[in-house]
Each structure stands twice: as C-alpha cells, then as structure tokens.
Amino acid sequence: MGDSKPAISTFPLDGLLPKEETQAAAFIQKNPTFDGRGTIIAILDTGVDPAAPGLTLTSHGNPKIIDVVDCSGSGDVVMRAPVTPAAGGPPTLVSTATSRKLLLDPSWVIDGATFRLGAKAASDLFPKPVLDRVQKARKRAWEVAQGNVLAAAVGDLDKFGNGGGAGTTADDDGGEEKDKWKQELKARVDVLKDMGKNYADPGDIYDVLLVTPPSGSPFVVVDTSLTGDLRKAIPLTDYAESRAWSKFGDFDLLTYSIKIFDGGDRVSIVTLAGSHGTHVASISSSHHAAVPTTSGVAPGSQLVSLKIGDTRLGSMETGLALSRAATYLAKTHPFGKVHVSNMSYGEGSSSVKGCFGDRVTEWVVNRAGGVFVSSAGNAGPGVGTVGAPGGMASGMIGVGAYVTSSLQSPSYSLIEPVPERPYTWSSRGPAFDGWQGVSVYAPGGAVAEVPRYSLAPTQLMNGTSMASPNAAGCVSLLISALLSSNMPYSPYTIRRALENTGKDIADPQGVTFVQVQRAWEWLVESRKRNGGGRWDVEYEVTFPELPLSPRGIYLRESISTGRILQTSCDVRPKFPNEENGDQERKLALEVQLELSTTAAWVQAPKNVLLNHGGKTFNIRVDPSGLAPGLHCAFVLAHDTSSPDLGPLFRVPITICKPHPPSVDNRYQWPAMNFGPGHVERLFVEPPQGANFAILTVKSVGRDTMARFTVQIIQVLPQTRYAKTEQEYTIALSSTSSDSPTDLQTVRMAFRVIPGVVMEICLAQFWSQAGASTVSVEVEFHGIQVTGSLAGSGNSAGSVGGSGLGASGLYLNGGDGFGSLEVFAPLRKESFAFGVSFDIIRRVYRPTEYHISPLASRDVLPNGSQASSLTLTYEFKLFDSTTVTPRLPFITNQLYESPFEGFLLLIYDSGKKVVGTQDIYPKSLKLDRGEYTIRCQIVAASTETLERHSSATLVLDCKMGKDLSLPVYPTAQDALIGGKSGYGSKVLQLGERRAIFWTAVDAPKETNPGDLLVGELKCYGGSASGNGVDKIDGGLGSVSYLVPPAKNKESENDNKSRAKDKRPDEATQLAEGIRDLEIGALKKLPDDKRSEVMTRLEAQFPDFLPLLQAKLDVYSTAALTRVAETCTELLEQCDKLIAVANGTAKSGQNELALYYAGKPDTSSASAKELKKEMEKRKDAVVFALLVKLKVYSELASQVKASVSESSGDANTKLKEAVNALDAAYAEYSKWASAGGTSDATPEKDENLLRIYVRRERLAGRFGNALKAINKFLSDPPVGELTRSGNTSTGTLAQVYTLRTEVLRDLGWDVWVEYDKSWRAIKWPAEFALIN
Predict the structure, then answer these.
(1) Where is the Tripeptidyl-peptidase II first Ig-like domain positioned along the sequence (predicted)?
(2) Which residues contact 1035 (CB under 8 A, 6 or more apart)?
(3) What is the tens place of the pLDDT at every residue in 1256-1314?
(4) What is the DSSP string of 899-927?
C-alpha cells in the first residue's frame, strides 16, 4: 500500500519577525529608500554583538554598528603608569597583576611609543552562560589531570601496602617509621580527594596592554591566550574609529571591542552582558540580504550599542550606566546625532520623576531632538503596572506587547490559533499620576538573531522588550522618510503620529496598534497644517490643585470614586529645544481648540484658545454612578482647523470603581467566563481591621488544563506597586486531581492593607485556547497584634492595624518583660501565636569617605562634572553566614532616584571582590573573616554627596538557628518562669487577648544595640475550618533590641578583693615605671636598650615579663643567624621556663602540678590563682615556641648543608628532625594545657609553619599540605587576616607555602591552580567600582 504524501507549504517566515501587521513591510516595498537609511538607532541594553551576521552591513552596504560603548563600567581597566620594555632580546614586560612575562611585537617598540599595563578578570566580562560553559570545559580537563595525579598517589599507597618501597629514607627504618610513611601516603590520597571536592574555578585574568605610538591611533592588546605572548594577539583601536572587534577564543565565541578614555588612563573592554541586546537590535535593524523576510524592521538604519547592563550584576542596569547613556545620546558625535533610542529595560517605580527620566526628557528628547522608545514592562495585566522609564516619562514612547496572528504558528507552534490581543503579561497603565503610560502596542515576540556565543543563530523571545524595538524600527522608517523628503519633525510629532493613527484594537485604556503607512500619511498632511509649529510642540498637562500636580486623573479609593471631582487642568506648550530656540515661534503659536470627552461622566469646556502662555480650565469627573470595574476616558483637544488629524493632546482619566462594602466581609462571583487572554478585574476595599485575605478560585467549566494569572495589587502613594503586589500562576481544569467529582479549587492567602482598594486581576493566559468558567470568592480576615506599654514603655508598635506596612512590632529587650494584645475585629478567627527571629541586624558608620570628580565621560551635557562619594565600611564575621547589606537612603530606588548612580562591592581581607550589588539588596553567603564594603554614590552636586558622607549601612546576618521569643498566656507564668508557649486558640468576634513575653538569650555574636529581626507567626482563618498555615507577604516583622549583656558572676567581688591587695603608692609608682620601660624595650635604640635591660635585670632578676620581653627582643634578630646564637637562645628559653614553672625558685614544677588536675575556680582566690598560672603558662609556651623555631632552623640548615647521598647525612638529618620532634611535642603539650583548642597547626600560624617545615624535612609533604589546607579553610579572625591585606600578608604567605609543597609533590596541575587563584585572592588594590 502506497504512502500518501502530505502537502508541504512554505514555512511562514514572515511570522518570525512581524512587519506586515504594522505596515512596515508594505511601507518599505512602496518606498525602498525609506528603509531606515540615514537614521541611527541607539540600543540601550546588554550590548550588541558586532559579529552577528545580520548586524554587519545595512541594506545599502554601510557599516551597521558604528559605535559600541560599555556605559556600565563593568569592562573598565585602570591602566598603570607607563613602563619601558626590557632591552636586550625580544621586548618584554612583566605584569604586576598576573606575574606573566609579556612578549611584545618588536614593531610596537619604536622611539616615542608609550606602554601601559592593566588587567581584567573574565568574571567581569563574560556573561554567565559563557562563563559556565568555559568553566565546565576547564573542569573536564582538570578532572583528567587530577585523576592522573590521584591514581599515582593511590598506586603508591597500594604498592607500599603490598610491601613495595616508596623510595624514601624511611624504607629501611623500623616499624614506627614505616607507619609514619604509610600515614603520609594515605594523607596524600586524602588531601587530593578533599581538594578535588573543593575545586572552584579561579577564572581567568587577562593582561591588557595599551600602546600609544608617536603617530597614529593608540591600540590595545588583550592577552586572550593567557600565555603572555602578545605577538599573536590582535591589536584593536577604538571601535568608533576602526569598527574592529575580536573574540576571546574559538570555544567561547565572545566578541569584544575597545574604547579608550582620558588619554589612556582607562580602557574599556566592551563585551556583552547577555543575548537580549543583540536580539533587540536584530528586531529593529538587522539586514539579511539572502532572506529579506527575516530582516529587521529598518534594515537600512545604523546602530549604536550602549551597554547599560552590568555584567558583574548579571545584566542588571545601574543608575550610572543610564546616566552615561543619556549623556551620550544628548551629544553630537562625528557620525552625527542619534535619531532613535530603544530601551528594552525598565521596572516599577515609586515616582514619575527621577534622574534618568528627567535627563532623557530634557536633554535627549527636547534639546537633542531624539525619539526615545521604551518597553512598558512585563508586569501586567494589573492596572498601573506600567514600568519606568517607558511608562513614566512623558517625553518617551512607551510600548506594550501585542500578540499577532502571524506569530502564533511559526514562533509559538500553537495547535490552534487564539485571538489577537495584548499579551497577558504586558504592563498596563496608567502611571502613578494618571498619565496614560502605554503609548502604543507593537508585536511582542520575535525569532531574531542572538550573539554567536549562544551557539544558535536565532532565538524566540517575547516581551515588551521585543515590542519596543519593533516600534523603534517603525519610527526609524518614518524618520528616514522625513529626512529623505527634507521634512522637519520633532520627537513630539512622531509620538503624536503614532498615537493618532494607530489601529483600534478595542483596548479598554484606548491604546492603539502601530501603523507605519498611516503614520507617514499623517506626518505628510500635518506638515501642511503646522501653523505656529503646533504639531511639533509637546503640550504638558498637569492638575495643579491635586497632590504632586499629576498629568492625569487616577481615582481608585471608595471616597474619591463616590463623589464628583472638579479641578483645574493646566496645559502648557513646550517647544523643542526651548531653552535655545527662536522666540518668534513661540509668538506664532495660537491654536483654537475644541475639547470633547469620550465618556458622559466626564465634562470639559467646549473651546479653549491656547498660545505659548498656556491655559487653565476646569474638568469635572463624576464616577459616583459608575458600575464596579475599570473605566477609562479622555478629554480630547482637537485643532478646529484640522479635526481629521486627531487630537493635539489627550487628558487621560482612569477610574477603578470598587464593589460596595460587604456585610460579612466576603465577596463572591459564581460564574466568570474567560477565553484566551481575557482579563477580569475586581476592585474591592478591605475593611478596616483586615490584614489578610483568602482568595478561592474554582474551575466550574473547563475540559483541559489552562494556565491562569492571578494578580492582587493595592496602590500606596509614592510606593512601587510591587511592594503590595501578590502574583500567582495557577492551572485549572474541570475537576480536582484528588477527586473526579470535586471541582478543582485553588486557595491563596495573602496580606492586605485595610481601607486601600485592591484589584483582583484574573486572566486566562493568552496562549491557552478554549473557554473557561471560573468562580471566585474573596474573604477578609483580621488578626491584629499590638504592643502595649510594659516596663519602661518602649515596647510598642502594631501588626495588622492601620500601621501595617511600616516597621511592624518593636520590642525593647531592655524591658525584659512586656505584653501584646491580639484582637479579632472582623470575624471569629483561629490562630496560633509565635515569634521567630532569624536575622541579626547591625548598623555601621563609614570608617572613611572620599568625594572626587569622575572622568570625562561623566561630564553631563550641561557641562557639570559628576562626582562620586565612596563610603567604606568594615565588619567581621566569626561564623559563616548569609549577609544582606543595604544603604537605607538609596536602597530600592533606580528610576525614581535623584542620584546618578550607586554600586556596592564587598571585599574579603585580601581585597578580593566577593560580591557586587546594586540598589536591590541581595543575600550573599560569606565565610568567617573580615570584610570591607565600599559603596559608590554618584551625583552632579558635591553638596548633595556631602549630606550622605556618614550614611549608615545596615547589615542583616542570618542566624545559624532560629530563636523563638518566650511567650506566656499570663503575666504570672512569664514572671515566675511557668510553661511557655501559646498553642492554637480561637478568638471570638471582637475578643481581645493578652500575651506576655520575656527576654531572649541573644546569640553570643550580638552586641548591645543590635536588632534581632524575625516574623510574627499568627496564622489563622475562619473558625469554620478555612484555616491557612501560610500568608504570603506575612503579617509583619518583629524587631527585638538587644540589651547589654549580663554581668559576669562575682566580678565585683573579684574587683573588691583586688583592691585590698594593692601595694602602697611608692611601690605602685616603681612598678608602673618598670612596666613602661619593659614595654618600650623593642622601640629603644640598641645601646639604650642594653643599658635599660642591664639595670632592670639587676633590680628584677626573675621578673617574668622582663625575661619574656628580653627573649622576645633577642630572638627577633637572633633567629636569622641561629647557628651563632642557638646556645644563648636556648639558655634564655630555659631560664624563662624555669622561672615560669617554679623550678628556678622552689625546685618543683608548680605549673605541671597545677595543670595535672582540674583547676579549682570556685572561689575568688582560686580564680586569681588561675589567672596567675595562665600568665606563667603563656610564658612557657612562648619560650617553647622560640626553642621550636631554633630547632626548626637548625634542622633546615642541616638539610641544606649535607649531601643527600651520604649515609652520614641521613643520620645528621634524622638527629636534627628528632630534636625538632621533641621540641614540637613539648610545645604542643603546654600550648594545649588547660584545654586550649588552638594549639594545633590548623589553628596556630606559628605552629603551622614549623610543622610544615618539619614534615617537609622528613619528606612527608602530604601531612604538610593537609595541615595547610585545614588552616586556609578556616583562618583566624582578627590580627592575622588583617595582615593578609597585602600580597606579603600572613594568609598570602601561607598560600605561597602551600604552592611550594605542591611543587615538592610534583603536582603541577595544582601548582597552576594555585597560581591562577593567587592573582584573584590577593589583588594589589581594591577593585575598581566605576
């Protein structure tokens, strides 16, 4: 039987990157030269890959990408002072960062050329997917080498166990030595396994060379081979001059280019923070000559890549990057000006004002005449979820995402088509102040090019990030046509053309879909009727009588939506480049307007005569008769001479009308019908006393599983919607998975703010085909907890009342006792009370601050120089934990921030960067140790920076174990220590109950003034059984002020006894002088020291501190020539030991007798004796340490002076090692006397060095390495790590010791590993911030 062949149609390429629906394709077909040529589009994003095939040339053969800039600073390299290549032989330089010898091309070394070096870590340059891929490949290669080393070590151990020798002097020794050698071989195996488990890729550090020849352009060479041979590297000049780029390697395929700033003081290696920017650029501008259908919207346009995504932050934008991008766009460059900017970045904001938005509106749009297009955000479908900057700044074009029919099959592979409509997640307006927010819709998905490092030619992405560049490409077509036709325009003309000619898509908020041909026709016609430049002017609308003078009317609350609002509306024309423009055009402007409204509940005057001076008139809004739901309207202002061109300006009005109050605080909607992308909005006001709600959604009619979005939003003044938002994604079908007869039910419990209208937004996801019927119920609950005045009256606050959302409950631990009140204001509630602390919150002031001007790229367009404030904070951690640092005055402010920028870097004690953060606090796991935080705040005004020079840093440290607040049902139980805890209870409607608390035992690492921060656990539900065990958003935080610690028992008694034993004043004076002289011995010149020492020894021959100081002074120099001084050193040590242990005086070892048993500390006199004995023991330990050092040096000298082949050599070496072993054993015994736990090589740095030397002398390198690794894995906190701040510091020296031992073992793979890590762990200076 023959097979039937299916009819195969051509793949619908036009659906991969939609251009038909916007009329862009038809526009180019009709006007081939209006394809964007002559225009420049700036892409503010993660960076654009100049190696992407479709981003190489324009449609008419010009270079596509004409400049590439990293505005974030993540690729910055500080270049050191000029250096001179070594003469004689091939020219070389030595890198101070990596210690590599760099081989230079001889042709670079000519008279007058200068050379400057810098270095850059790959982790600052490589996007995470590339970094992960490179590290995985490197680990695979390392695993092979490590496996070979481990196999050899295991083989040596097996061979020894089977009677084979190991080739050491221990082979012919007795059983004890063989046991030691077996332990050594086992240690090698163990240490290799442990190091293998703890392998961490060190990353790469690239040396960077800047060569400035006497003539011609400076160029940069990056040692991408990591070998030091720069002769094969590709020299790159500034990209704007040469359009040159390179790649780090054939495996990573990561493209980079170069920018040079400030005469070579700084080099920027420009890479990519992600694939997003290339995809965005491809949508707006790519050109594929072979398959034009897959080209971008404006293939003739050129591009500028402005990287605002910081690679160090995983592509997050920073304020400084945004400021630099705005500055770049406001300037005219050698290639001309940027015509269109696209920014597919953004997020929620607490204000419509902010540094970046204001800069773009004034400098880029108004003065430079650039059109700025930005994504509206992907936080929908809730009302007011539009993001900044696109939906906030009126000078921009905010673009929402629309799913078109052509996308559905080739891009999304849907089984059945769904209606065209806005994507479910596309953010909706209005802005905070009622401004419309979303200007237009454009196709919100595309299959477009991505960077070569992605190892894929194209990728599907969707979002308003894709809609915005599609619209930007459409704008480029229009401007290309305008420039070709010599027609003037302004950014305001372009936006008005798009808004007035868009396709009506029945959007409830009046937003239309971009139409290029219609917009062009509008532009042509408006030029003919542009008297006084009326179509080129921005008409700024404000309502001065309303709070903060909003640009629209936005009413949500019950009071405001239940009464008439009549308020004045002020309209002011704003001309392009108004500051420096021609005054005649202002004089010429006079427009006769007719106002109309799109809804009967809005009234406005019929006519307005508007000139440059502006006009104020009243608008009346009466929402009182509206049904519950969303209502949107406009006041439209038409030019009476050109009504067919649409309105000159719109006044947006948005009403979110809540449902009437419910008697039982419960709302129900039994049958709500949904289809693909359908959105339902329910507005209700939580009653006073409510602090959480339970939302129940049931599927009552659905054949297949469908995805739904549930979004709950309350709006607070000048607060991001995300702070009060709860969002859920749920899947609904017809029945429950537990029972085929039960309707599927999803319950959500979440925190609410009483008296603030809440939107419950439900939407069937846009791609989920088929109809659905859903029932919805929301039930409000209230369990209020308030602090009452107890003790000193400082424990107060509330959770769940009108103060919800502030600081929660505050408990003063100094009170030691207090009470709380629990109240059920709405209904009968079940609850279980508890408070659990998991955070220690500390506050730090800066240890130093520095204000300095930034460099040339941070000179703002108005000529002012931006400056930076660098704040330095220091803190210690005595245990590994998770920390979250933040600066409260700037945290969580980006687009609303008045500052140009902020960045926070965390360094360990070796100056290695262990964390980079922006304005959003993030948690970071840190090991015990000392850390430095440096914060950079950038502003145009140094006075502003001075105001914050002592700003506090808040550091939240995660506790190792949660700590519960002791609570009791009665005051008596609390005061007498009765049974603690407060189990499940039921509160009747209106009932109040008291709960009592007592002080907690704060963790030992806390200090007075710290806060313990935790969560109030008071979950409940209705008494009918609808209890919940989790409330999203919680019911509030609880803070507990740590009081001063308890006094040590009997401390006062000890002090009083000590006073009774004080000598007379003359004796005290003599002893004080003696102690001062002893303390100053090290600082005195040699002759003076000898004089003072002789006199003191005569007066106090057996005074322990004097003998100890004498040995300390003498041993410091004597240990460097131990062969000459060993006899005297050992004599001094023995004398100090004899005096300390008592044998010099009594002949009896008092110290040994004391520590032979368990010391008595029951009485004050016993405690005094213990202190005395501890001082004497410390003196013995010090003397033994010096002896140990002497024997260690002697053994090393024997090792160096004798021949290994001589039998006598082995005997001498063995004797020296035995003497060292005996000294080591004695030191260890006394160092650990009394239970001291730090007398081990793993804890004591002095002992570690001696132990390692001993083991190396014996050839036991595995034991030595094992001890070093244990020490480095948990170094002491304090003076030791503080000395590790330089490459010669203690930890760095120990690390060097480890590398030496690895060389002894011949483990080259680990030697190279250590060398790579060393440059990372101990950089010469703090890493650059910006």
Answers:
(1) 549-655
(2) 691, 692, 751, 783, 785, 799, 800, 1015, 1016, 1017, 1018, 1019
(3) 888 999 999 999 999 988 877 654 444 344 444 678 889 899 999 999 999 999 999 99
(4) SSEEEEEEE-TT--EEEEE-SS---EEE-
pLDDT, tens digit (0-9, with 9 covering 90-100), for 482-500 = 999 999 999 999 999 999 9
309 and 45 Cβ atoms separated by less than 8 Å: yes
Strand order in the sheet with 607-611: 553-555, 647-657, 629-639, 590-597, 607-611
Q: What are phi and psi of 831, to 5 degrees?
A: -155, 160
Write the CA distances from 130 to 253, 274, 949, integer angstroms: 9, 9, 39
CB 31 within 8 A of CB 263: no
| Of residues 245, 243, 241, the one with CA closest to residue 256 | 245
C-beta neighbour count of 1208 within 10 angstroms? 9
Token duo for residue 417: 């088509």
Please give the pLDDT value at position 1221: 82
CA 611 to chain centre: 49
Residues present in the chain in total: 1330
What pLDDT score does 791 carry? 36
Q: Residue 700 belongs to what H/E stretch?
A: strand 692-701
What is the DSSP code (8-state) at residue 1089? H
Query: Cα separation of 684 and 1011, whole Å?
Result: 37
| CA 986 to mean position of chain CA atoms | 43
Q: In the 8-state DSSP scheme, what is residue 593? A: E
SS3 content of the chain, % helix, strand, coil (to 5): 35, 30, 40
Q: Could you identify the residue written with the tokens 């739904």?
A: 708
Separation of alpha carbons 978 and 588, rounded Å: 86
Cα–Cα distance, 761 to 292 (Å, whole number): 41
pLDDT above 50: residue 1025: no
Q: Where are the alpha helices (DSSP H) in 449-556?
A: 464-484, 491-501, 516-528
Q: Which of 467, 480, 482, 481 is nearest to 514 (CA)?
A: 467
Helices (H) then strands (E): counts for the chain: 28, 57
Neighbour count for residue 1142 (Cβ, 10 Å): 17
Distance, in Å, from the CA atom of 122 to the CA atom of 622, rounded to the nearest integer, reads: 61
CB of 536 within 8 A of CB of 489? yes
The amino acid present at 885, given as its one-letter code, is P
Q: Which two tokens stand for residue 402?
A: 């629309």
pLDDT at 793 (0 to 100): 41
What does the DSSP 8-state code read for residue 229? B
d(C-alpha 603, C-alpha 567), whole Å: 11
Q: Phi, psi at residue 265, to the nearest 5°?
A: -65, -25
- Indicate if the pLDDT at residue 414 is higher than 70: yes
pLDDT tens-place string over residues 580-637: 777 888 899 999 999 999 999 999 999 999 999 999 999 999 999 999 999 999 999 9
Angle at 946 between CA 941 and CA 950, to 5 degrees: 145
CA distance 970 to 991: 16
- Which residues are part of the catalytic machinery? 45, 276, 465
DSSP string, 1109-1142: HHHHHHHHHHGGGHHHHHHHHHHHHHHHHHHHHS
In this predicted model, what pLDDT tens digit does every residue of 816-838 receive, in sequence order?
A: 999 999 999 999 988 888 899 99
Q: Is the pLDDT of residue 1050 over 50?
A: no
Euclidean distance between CA atoms 630 and 430, whole angstroms: 12
> Tens digits of per-residue pLDDT, 1217-1268?
888 888 888 888 888 887 666 677 888 888 888 889 888 888 999 999 999 9
Assigned token pair, 1127: 């006899």
> How many other β-carbons are positioned within 10 Å of the β-carbon of residue 954?
16
Question: How sure is the predictor about 984, in pLDDT bands with cuts at 50, 70 and 90?
Answer: confident
Q: What pLDDT was estimated at residue 1291? A: 82
Give whole-number Cα distances, 641 to 594, 616, 1214, 1288, 1306, in Å: 10, 21, 110, 81, 90
